[in-house]
Amino acid sequence: MAAILERKTEDVFNRGKQPVHSGADLQKIAMETIDLSVHYGEKTAIHQVSLRFPEKNVTALIGPSGCGKSTYLRSLNRMNDEIEQCRTDGKIMYKQVDINSDEANVFEVRKQIGMVFQKPNPFAKSIFNNIAYGPSHHGVKNKQQLHDIVEESLRKAALWDEVKDQLHRSALALSGGQQQRLCIARALAMKPEVLLLDEPASALDPVSTGKIEELISELKQEFTIIIVTHNMQQAARISDHTAFFYMGDVVEYGETEQIFTNPQKQQTEDYISGNFS
Ligand code: ADP
To answer: EC top class, in one word (predicted)?
Structure first.
């Protein structure tokens, strides 16, 4: 049994050893859910949702408030494990392994599938230590190496130029938009492959929102991004694929352009045209 666990974990986490999908007919898929249901006690918030997330694409999850977008997003890196009475059934396939199984190492799952929340939540530490915290707890002790990770992560999050001369200042002194980019940098420092963003710009002003959107468009060259947004213009601007959620189900999924210009379902059309009651 121990060997199975070892092999499974290795399969999930040794990058590049096995292609996710090698079929020429498939766009490379970073992860997918198969019949995923999420329950809070007796209540089912997500009903057997199957979705595939193409690699190095942005997929937007849209839909009215309370329809399960955040619940579904949190399930993708087992964040719902932290919620009492929350139970997730079905499969979450990542690198050919079901990471919703008891064998998966949740700690490692969250390393590779990072998450950024709606409200910026930097630690009450310096900018440097916010970024270095994760890697140093995962064994990176060499100062130069840590510095390199901090610089690389801040550069990728388009924050380096603004903070490079004040790395030892408190992260709490940054503006809201800078704090959110810092949180993205903190997630990137763990070298994830997938980034889950839960309404990352909804607490920000329009200028900071624009910077986050630009950043997402940059990051998708390297990462697979799954974003919950209530802002349909934002979904249309930044995503490649869109899934429309309603009452815990995916009503429609497709290329963003198609969803917004030629939706196949009446509910989708009503929602995107603002006629949803
Ligand atoms: P959305 O992100 O689309 O606004 P949520 O995923 O937040 O939707 O919520 C989906 C449903 O699950 C709602 O009915 C909500 O009340 C319920 N829910 C969300 N979080 C919890 C929780 N921690 N405990 C119990 N019910 C929850």
So the answer is: hydrolase
